[in-house]
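Fold tokens
===========
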Amino acid sequence: MNKQRALDTEVGGNHYRNLPIQPIEFITKNNIPHIEACVIKYVCRHKYKNGVEDINKAIHYLELLKELTYNENE
């Protein structure tokens, strides 16, 4: 049986598959923690999926990172 690889399948569009390196590959190979991974994901896809909404999501995750890691609030 010739099963399709999970990396070749994308639910909800093709905003990651069109990139030379998919964010999940980069994130996994570099053992990037969850919050940082979310930032990478949203920054990589903003042009192809949700525009400024994805940028705002990335900013939100960076604010969470500052608050939870460095105990900084703005």
